[in-house]
Amino acid sequence: MITTTWVLGAGRANVVLDGYFASATAALTNVAAAANIPSSAVLGQDLLGTPVAFSPFTQTGVVGTAGTALTIFTVPLTALNRAFIRSDTLNLEIALTAAPLLQLPAAVYTGTLTLQAQAL
Fold this sequence. Notes:
Blueprint: E1 2-7, E2 14-20, E3 28-30, E4 35-37, E5 42-45, E6 55-56, E7 69-76, E8 83-88, E9 91-94, E10 114-119
Antiparallel strand pairs: 1-8, 2-7, 2-10, 3-4, 5-6, 5-9
């Protein structure tokens, strides 16, 4: 569950939540096996947000590394939601359906998904 809270004055048009990885080629890594899962193979879905279907972390977001992001939601601001609390569920999936990802060893892979909201 992701909870995003904001209190904003006039002058901002949207609140945008982006998720991103530090590397497009190594979003998830197994050091012992010297194996990486790219951000393009990590998919995100938020039924209340922007990616209602599973989508890869391949966008260039407002923040983060180019080609590793996914916009989770964009909320247009109005007088009614300048102070707001929003809860989202981000579902994640790893798609290892194409070569060379099919040859990755079964192992524990780790990585950091950074979430950052911005008022724009």
